[in-house]
Every structure is written in C-alpha cells, then in structure tokens.
Amino acid sequence: MDGLIDKYLQYLTIERNLAISTINSYKNDLIKFKEFLLGNDINDFSNQKIDSKLVLSFFSSLELSSSSKTRLLSSLKGFYQFLINSAFLFHSPFVGIKNTKIKETIPNTLNEHEVEAILKTIDTNSLIGIRNYAIIDLLYSCGLRVSELTNLRMNQIIPNRQALRVKGKGSKERIVIIGDLAYESLSKYLKFVRPHFISKESEEYIFLSYRGKKLDRQYIFDMIKELTMKTNINKKVSPHTFRHSYATSMLNNGADLRSIQKLLGHQNIETTQVYTHVSNKHLLENYQNILVSERENEDE
User: Fold this and answer.
1) Cα–Cα nearest to 115, from 221, 273, 257, 243
2) Which of 119-133, 185-199, 209-223 has the lowest mean pLDDT?
3) 196 is catalytic
4) Of these residues, 49, 161, 169, 230, which one is catalytic?
5) Which of 194, 214, 240, 244 is catalytic?
6) From 8, 26, 131, 145, active-site residue
7) Of these residues, 243, 244, 246, 287, which one is catalytic?
8) What confidence score (pLDDT) does residue 155 get?
9) Which has the closest alpha carbon to 283: 240, 254, 244?
C-alpha cells in the first residue's frame, strides 16, 4: 500500500509539479484511508471489499466539515484514477459517489449501554485489562482523538483539577475534565499497572505496552475491534467512535455547540455541527445562530 502511495506522490511531484504543501495534504488523505482499511483487515487498495458502502463508512468515521470531506473525496478519486491509468487497478470504488452523499454521512455512535457492554468484556483482573479499561474509559469520558491518547504524557495530567492538558491538531492545547469513573480507572492503572510497564525510553508517556513501549494507534484500533466482537453490538467501532459518542452524549444532555467545539478542539463550528443529527430543532437553531455571529464578526 505504501508503495502505491509513494508512486502517486512521485507523479504529483514530477508530472504535475504540485507544491510541497499540496502533496503533503494528499499524503495525509491517503494515510487516513489506508489506516481505515487496515483497521478493517484490508491491506490492498485493490481488495474487492472496498466498495461504495465501505467508502461511505470511511467518511462517516471522520470528524470533518462538509468542505473538508469534499476535498478529501476529490483527493481519493484522483488517487484511484491514477491507479487505473497506471494499470494497477481496473475499477474505482469511488465511481458514482457524489459530494452530496459524502456530506450526508453520519458518524457511528454508541449509547451508554453499548459502551458499558464493551467495558464489561475486559478482564480487569489482569494488568493489561486494567490498562485497556482505563483507555476506553478515557476515550469516552474525554472525547480524545486516538493520537491524543497515545501521545499523552504524565505532565499533561492536572491532578488538582481532575483534568488533562491535551495537545490537539496543530499543537493547540485545551483543558479536558476527566469524569469521576474514568479518573478512578486512570488512577488505578497509574498506581498498580504502569510501574510494571515503565522503561527509560518511554517513561514520560502514560499508556505503555507490557514491554515498556508507547502504545501506537494500530494497537488501540485492534484492541477496540477485538473487544467489540465479544459483544452483540452490530456496528463498526473504532477509537473515534467513542469521541463521536462523547459529543453526542454531551449534546443530548444539554451542552451547547460552542462548548462542545471547545471540548473537542474543533477550529470550525461546522465540524461540530455534524452531531446535530442526534438532537432536535433547538440544536439546529443554536448552530445557525453561531454561524450568523461568526459571519458578522468576519464582516466587521
């Protein structure tokens, strides 16, 4: 998969003479799609399992504004057209997929009972189980991105506020409060498990493997997939599903969009707007009022 991505990036560089920043954007788009495929046990861009349904599932797993989804769709269509023109493939799964379908994709979410069902599958009598329980609890309680979780360092914990100092996209920092139960799970892991895993090379990181290495994104994806398979949940569940569920739960419990935007670390309120599908007219009106306010500020 990486080989084909590299060939495409070379084509963009040599044949199309695109700017480095543009090529890096294409690269990030392709890596996103590749990681999604690997998370679904697909390790080949030509795999027949990659159909329009899977493509729409990919877009529904993302936390992007409509304009960003449109750009990403264009990027992936271009990649697959390159593969066809170069005789690596004979068919694109993006044929027939229009921007309107992409914009309408809705994130998968879990309700509290489903989150609890996943937590119950974890063996908390083992060191690994205690760690994994804390990971799931923190993803759901704080709405973290998987990269934010794996990169968490010990100095990002704020004990006196029961909170985390999270570094999001663009190294932007935000403070996220940890729920009581999640804080209890995290404290248990830090006290009874982490001391057994810690090593000099990764002592600054919170979540470690039993060999003392920082956990990577793929481990979290695989762990969640394995846990979900033990339940009766008939949904595709990824680390980002817990972030979607966190936002949806907050909205359902009366939080306003502006607060959710800050807690999730969204730069644009339109990205947060995707969660209004779960609620009612009040939320939609709230979103419209914020948009009007932002546009008025831009005009001033």
Assistant:
1) 243
2) 209-223
3) no
4) 169
5) 240
6) 145
7) 243
8) 94
9) 254
Kindly state the average pLDDT of the residues 157-182.
Answer: 86
Which structure tokens are listed for 42?
A: 């697909």
The pair of structure tokens assigned to 148 is 């934010």
Residues, the chain, total?
300
169 is catalytic: yes
The C-alpha atoms of residue 142 and residue 68 are separated, in whole angstroms, by 24
Q: What is each CA distance from 109 to 16, 44, 60, 241, 256, in whole angstroms?
A: 40, 27, 10, 6, 18
Q: Are 139 and 239 in contact (CB under 8 A)?
A: yes
The structural domains of the chain, ordered by start, are: 2-103 (1.10.150.130), 112-245 (1.10.443.10), 254-299 (no CATH)
Catalytic residue among 26, 133, 246, 275: 275
Reported as a single tens digit per residue, the pLDDT across 241-270 is 898 888 888 777 777 777 777 777 777 666
Whether 275 is catalytic is yes
pTM of the complete model: 0.66
Residue 240 annotated in active site:
yes
Residue 199 pLDDT > 60: yes
Residue 159 confidence (pLDDT): 85
